[in-house]
Amino acid sequence: MDFNRQLFSIDSQLAQEDLESLKFLCVDLISNKRLLAIKSSLDLFRELQKQSLLEEDKYDLLAELLYIIGQHSLLRILGTNKWIVQETLKKKRNVSSYRQMLFELYEDITSEDLKSIIFLLDVPKKYSENKKFLDILCYLEKNDQLSETKLDVLEKVLGVVSLELLKIIDDYKKTREIQTAGPQFLSPEDTFYDKTPLSKEVTEVSTEDKEEESIREYFQHVTETVKEKDLMTENTEICISDLNLNEQPKQELDILQVYPMNRKHRGYCLVINNSEFMKSDPRRGTEKDAEFLNNVFTWLGLEVEIRKDMSTLQIHECLKEFQNRDHTERDCFVCCILTHGKSQAVYGSDSEIILLSEVTSYFSSTNCSTLAEKPKLFFIQACQGKSFQGAHAIEADAISSVDEKRDRRTIPDDADILIGMSTVDGYYSFRDIRKGSWYIQALCENLAQMVPRGEDILSILTKVNKDVSDLEYMKYGKTIKQMPQPTYTLRRKIHQNAKCRTFHLIALPVAKTGALRWRLWIQDV
Hints:
alpha/beta, Death Domain, Fas, Rossmann fold, 6-stranded mixed β-sheet, 17 strands
C-alpha cells in the first residue's frame, strides 16, 4: 500500500479527541504556532513529513504516538504491532517520559477530578470553560508553572484531588532519578507508563490467516501478565501447541462426567456491550473488555458476535434471536453482558432493567430445545448494588456427575447453566477506564492460561475469584475489595477441545502486586 494511502487510512479512523492527544504529544517536536494551525490528522502527518519526522521508511514516531494513545489496531496498517513497538521503545523514544506522564494523567482523570483541579488552580475563566485537562496542562506550561523539573504546583493539587493520580507523578520522578543516576539501573518494571513488562522473543510456528496475528498478540499480553511467586529470579517459558484440552496428565476423564465437545461447531458467543446510557454515566473502558472477550472466545473456537448499546427491548429481541437459532450441531452457548446493573438485574442503554432470570430463561431446555443438555455460560460484568465490599474467603466449587443412560432420563428445565457474576449481590463492581474491568480481564487471562492445562471451567472461575479478591482500591481512606460469584446448575465438567495454532512465548514475570496493574477505578453503577 502506498504510504500516503496508509496515512489516509489511519486518519479516517482517528477521532477529534485522538487528534488533540497526538498534538499534545508533539508539543516538544512541533512549534506551538504550527500546532495551532493543524486541524486534522492529515495536517499533522504533513507537518511531521516536512520536518523529516515521518517518512515511508521512518514511521517509528507515528507508531509510538499511536501506541501511546491506545490505537494499537492501527499499527497493523504500518506493518507492525504493539509488541514490536514496545520492543523498539526499549532502545529509543521520540516522546519524552515527561510528556507521556502528563498524557497518562489526562487519560486517568475523571470529569469530577477536572472540575476540582480547575477550581484549586484558580484558572482564569477564559482558560477553564469547556476545556479539557490537556488544555489546562498547556496553560500551566505556558505560564511557567509546569515543566519537566517543575511539578510542585500540579503535585499540590493532585495531592488533594486524587492520590492515585499523584502516584503517577511519583512513579515518573522515581524513574527520572534512576535515569539521571545511570541507565544501567533501569529495568522494564521501573518505567512509569507501563506496569507490564516489555515483550520478549515470539516465534511463530504456523501462519494460516490474518487472525493469527491478533491471537498471537493476545497471548503475548496474557503471558506477560502472569503472576508467579518467584518473580525476580527467572523467566517463564510458556508453550502452547496442538492443544487437546480434554486430556489431563494424571487421569483420564470419565466420558459421563464431561460435556461432549465434539460436534461440528463449538457454539455461539454473544457479547452485549453497553457503553452509553440515557440516565447514567458512560462505561469508559468497556471496549477493552469486549475486545478481550472476542479474542479469547474466538481462540476457543466460538463464533463471537458483539452487540453494542442495546436498549432493554433490543436485548430481549437479541436473546430471542439467539434462542431461535439452530444449536443442534453446536456444543455450547456463551453470553457475556457488560453494562450497569442492580441486584439480580442489568440495565439496557435506555436505563430500564432486565432481570437475570429473564436472560437465562430464553435458553432453558423448554425454550431452546437444541441447547438441551448442553452447557450455557453467562458472564455478567455489572454492579449488583451500591455497597462497598471487603475481602471474602472462597472455596473451590464441586461438580456433580450423572450416571443414568442418556435415553432413559429427564433433566430439570434450568439444568446445565452457569452464571459468572463479577460481584456478589448488593455490591459494586469495578472497572478501569483504560484497561477494562477487574473481573473480565481476570476471566480472559485465566481462560487463556488454564484452558491449555486442561482445567475445567469451575476451577478457572475459582482462580478468577482469587485474582479479583487479591486486588484492592483505596476510596475515602478505606481499602475496597471485590468478590466475584459463580452460580451454576452444571451436571458435568466443562473441558474445551480446541485446535489451536502453535506459538512459543517467552514471558518475563511481573511483580505479584496486582494493584499496580491498574491505577484509576470507577464503579459500574
